[in-house]
Amino acid sequence: MEQVKQVQVTCPSCGQPTYITVEPADIGEDFIEDCANCCSPIHIQVTELDDGEWSVQVDGDDEQLY
Ligand SMILES: [Zn+2]
Question: What is the pLDDT of residue 3?
Answer without folding.
Answer: 84
